[in-house]
Specification:
- The complex is a heterodimer.
- Chain A contains ten helices and four strands, in the order H-H-E-H-E-H-H-E-H-E-H-H-H-H.
- By secondary structure, chain A is of the alpha+beta class.
- The model of chain A has no long low-confidence stretch (mean pLDDT 81).
- By secondary structure, chain B is of the alpha/beta class.
- Chain B has a single domain, classed as P-loop containing nucleotide triphosphate hydrolases (Rossmann fold), CATH 3.40.50.300.
- Chain B has nine helices and ten strands.
- The chains are: A alpha+beta, B alpha/beta.
Chain lengths: 294, 260
């Protein structure tokens, strides 16, 4: 048994080497397919991460109309506090809002210099809600207060984000199925070439009573290796790419929430390797079944 | 030989019947037909071969000699009738047991079917590796069989460096490496000159003397005539003659007279 596995591995490697170009094409398709899958998964993971963060902030922002007179500020706060379900109410002036933004932008704050002369922000109320479930009805009541122009709360954003994430995942899975089919065909074709190149040897093996495991072993190992090498390349690419992206985003857009490379990429690479291995085994098995008669 | 056969009930029965009949039959074909589409390669062939026999299978090209041999190691499957080889019911043999049958049978072809990328030693060792023989056994056994066929000293040569006769001897060595009970040869001398042909036939006779049953399909009438063994003649898929000790055709004298 051990000898069978050992021989299969040796022959499998030899065969990959012997069909350089075809092997390269197979490995390349596996790599590209899995890289696309990986990119989709990374984007989806980040979107749902952002959605999770936003969901925790159950806060309503009520924007005052531009004509709002700050003398009525206390009345406005009282009115808001009177609404059932409201936790705390804070008034934020437009100047303060700009200061906060400047702080968020950190080193890139000079981006804001363009708007500093004519602050486009508005006075607003920040209202926390006691029960996140009731945020919608509270928001509606807040919107009915006079001189409140517009009400925004995160749930809407969160829901939109979730639906985008969902769509991305579906599209990703669909695309990956297509690419997996292409990969399957290419790997099984590579294996078919191996079978063709070694038809004499296979014929002799059959003739002298080799078991099917003995004949198929090297073919399946070759498929497995093609799949896993491709997955490895995709894994390395996504690892480097993502690390770069995270690094540069932290410098240029520090306020953007983004998942750290670990454990996201680690898990992703494991997944890619498993998918690559399964694709490789399945397609080489298919070819062996189809083109080697016993 | 290295793998254990799984006895199946029909084989046990057939073995028992053969035993009771007192006939130590190695090959039993009963009412065997083989069709390829509309073409009938073998038509209702019934043939028994006893253990230890040496049999020539003669007949014109396309008569069905090769098909008959192919049925015996399940390269082809009979359309009708039953084929039994060494108590294995070949027609009903499940696919996974086919290798077990083939390990009992050594096959030699007109075109040798040696692997050109392997040396003579490796070609012979290959059979033993396939059946999972231990390395130490292979190192002992391969020189032994090469010696037997007169190829001692050619272990490291590649098939293309050998003459036709030597190549056929290498393929004979490969066929007997597993010590098969049955040796099938399909036109083994078809590509060889007279002397090489004789040396191959003599080797086959030698293996027969050592206990193997040998079945040779051939066109080589001078050898058939000279060796005076059992001759089975096939014509258009039917057995037309089965002589205990015979020549290539019904009248050896006629052939000689015509100088054929």
């Amino acid at each position: 048994m051990l000898r069978l596995i050992g021989r299969s591995v040796v022959e499998g490697f030899k065969s990959i080497w012997a069909h350089g170009l075809m092997s390269l094409a197979s490995v390349g398709t596996v790599a590209v397919s899995l890289l696309v899958l990986a990119v989709f998964l990374v984007v989806a993971a980040n979107l749902s991460y952002v959605a999770d963060i936003l969901e925790e902030q159950v806060e309503i922002v009520a924007y005052c109309s531009p004509e709002f007179d700050r003398e009525w500020r206390e009345t406005l706060i009282e009115k808001a506090e009177a609404i059932p379900g409201v936790g705390s109410v804070a008034f934020v002036g437009r100047e303060e809002a700009l200061d906060r933004l400047r702080e968020q932008f950190g080193s890139q704050a000079d981006l804001l210099s363009a708007v500093e002369d004519d602050n486009p922000l508005r006075d607003h109320l920040e209202i926390t809600v006691e029960d996140p479930e009731r945020i919608e009805s509270v928001a509606r009541s807040v919107g009915e207060i006079q001189s409140i122009d517009d009400v925004a709360y995160q749930r809407e954003v969160v829901e939109r984000l979730y639906s985008v994430t969902e769509a991305l995942r579906t599209a990703g899975v669909g695309l990956v199925f297509l690419l997996a089919a292409a990969t399957f065909l290419l790997i099984s074709n590579t294996i078919r070439l191996t079978i063709f190149a070694r038809r004499d040897e296979i014929e002799v093996m059959r003739l002298v009573g080799a078991s099917s495991a003995f004949i198929w072993g090297p073919l399946v190992v070759e498929g497995l290796l093609l799949g896993m090498i491709g997955a490895g390349i995709a894994g390395i690419a996504i690892y480097w790419g993502y690390q770069d992206l995270v690094g540069s985003l932290h410098i240029s857009l520090p306020f953007l929430p983004i998942l750290g490379p670990q454990p996201l990429i680690g898990n992703l690479i494991q997944l890619l390797l498993i998918i690559g291995a399964m694709l490789g085994i399945m397609s080489s098995w298919f070819s062996a079944q189809r083109y080697v008669k016993i | 030989m290295y793998g254990r056969e799984t006895p199946c009930i029909t084989n046990i029965w057939l073995g028992y019947i053969a035993y009771r009949m007192g006939a130590r039959l190695l090959i039993v074909l009963s009412h065997v037909s083989k069709h390829y589409g509309n073409i009938c390669a073998l038509d209702d062939v019934t043939l028994n071969i006893t253990k230890g026999e040496f049999v020539f299978l003669v007949g014109p090209s396309g008569a069905g000699k090769s098909t008959l041999l192919q049925l015996l190691f399940r390269e082809e499957k009979a359309s009708e009738g039953s084929v039994v080889v060494d108590n294995l019911n070949v027609t009903r043999l499940p696919r996974r047991h086919v290798p077990l049958l083939r390990r009992k049978v050594g096959v030699v072809f007109q075109d040798f079917k040696l692997l050109n990328s392997k040396t003579v030693f490796e070609n012979v060792a290959f059979v033993l590796q396939v059946t999972g023989a231990p390395k130490s056994f292979i190192r002992r056994r391969v020189p032994q069989v090469l010696n037997l066929v007169g190829l001692a000293g050619k272990e490291r040569a590649y098939p293309e460096q050998l003459s036709g006769g030597e190549q056929q001897r290498a393929s004979l060595a490969r066929a007997i490496a597993n010590s098969p009970r049955l040796i099938l040869a399909d036109e083994p001398t078809g590509n060889l000159d007279r002397d090489s042909s004789w040396s191959i036939m003599r080797l086959l006779a030698e293996f027969n003397k050592r206990g193997a049953t040998v079945l040779v399909a051939t066109h080589d009438w001078p050898i058939v005539d000279a060796m005076q063994r059992r001759v089975v003649e096939i014509n258009e898929g039917k057995i037309t003659r089965d002589d205990e000790q015979g020549g290539y055709s019904r009248s050896v004298a006629t052939n000689r007279a015509l100088g054929r």
